[in-house]
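Reply to dn_fold:

You asked what the input looked like. This is it:
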Amino acid sequence: MSRRGQASIAGSPVLVGALTTLVVIVAVFLSYNANSGLPFVPTYDLTAELPDAANLVEGNEVRTGGFRIGVIDQIDPIRRNDGSTYARVHLKLQKNVEPLGRDSDLIVRSRSALGLKYLEITPRGEDGFQAGSTIPMANARPEPVEIDTVLNTFTKKTREGQRNSLRGFGDGLAGRGTDLNDTIHVLPDLFSNLEPVMRNLSAPATRLRRFFPALERTARIVAPVAETQAELFENLDITFTALAGVARPSIQETISRSPAAEDAGIRGFPQQRPFIENTAGFARDLRPGAEVLPQALPDLADALELGTPALRRTPALNRRVKRLFLTLADFSTDPIVKVGVSRLRDTASTLKPALAFLTPVQVTCNYVTLWFRNAASLLSEGDRNGTWQRFIIVTTPQGPNSESGPSSAPANGPNEENYLHSNPYPNTAAPGQPKECEGGNEDYLVARQVQGNVPGNQGTKTAGQLTEEDGQ
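and this is what came back:
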């Protein structure tokens, strides 16, 4: 009896060909959809509004901090009512970036000089977009100027102008190498001397911006008298010609010595400037004190006269106070004192809520003062043998469950006097309570049972206490 062996898959050309075809189809499918994300992989889908797609295409990457977090799945142009358009971009992002903050910035950047773009997201904010939400256009930032934008500005006319400019510069510089070398040699000295001049001209105090408009206005004003000014210069020429013979040596000496004086000023003034600025600031700070000094001098004189004897007695006082400070130092370093202070702090912390609750009892309702007043008036009458305690017996109403004896329920009629009125904890304007002084101010509600606080606000007026209305 023979047994057939199990057939191997490798031994069946049909199965091998089918598996190969299936693998090729899957590989081609995954390659074709690679830019749109792998199938069966969950994504975090969002829609973003951009002022301009800026050469974005479907399949471009979405990055954060330089790392790829998704792709652009779809780009649609949207037309507004006024005829303008904007771009709506559908994003397929990785799940690990969900949720994206609502203050995140979006900007289109270049990936290479050939024009390839990508969308960069800078996450910001705590509250995030839910999947399927739309990122508003307010989150989009202007696209930076890229190299392709710069190159696109060079039209044919611009390129021809640049070529002609280069040709003109070349012809102008040809054969002038020695002059250029001499110019380059003296440029460092020129710029060194030019820097302080430009710094002074650019200072706000110079007001250079107003100088040229002022020149223009001056020229416009003096234009009608140009001929008169010409005559003025002719007369000045005559005058200086006459003075030349008299003051020539003095003027020549002044001119010859002026460069040395100006050089000394150029070297010295920058060093003197900090001293002058500090002197001006010092004088400015002393001005308030100097203004009141004439009135304060008599008091200062009296203070010096009276303070001299006191200062002479200060050493003896310091010697006497020394032992006090040593005792205070020992007291502050005693560990028992620290424990006692901690206990006092704990006591104050424990009493703080109770004091906060009880403070309005006196501050707002004046109950403590009223209690002492009533306690004093309780024993205010008497004879030569002593004072008497004043009191009166108030009879309780009669009826079912009357307060005159044991009862099975609160008194509730039938006669109008036999109703329980009990308010063991009246409002005293304490924290968490209405601002009212209920004790002693609540109305007696006839033929009505009242347990707890009386309805309505009784106000804060008590005996000896004024309300805001009384103050007004």
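Residues 334-402+409-467 form one domain.
Hope that clears it up.
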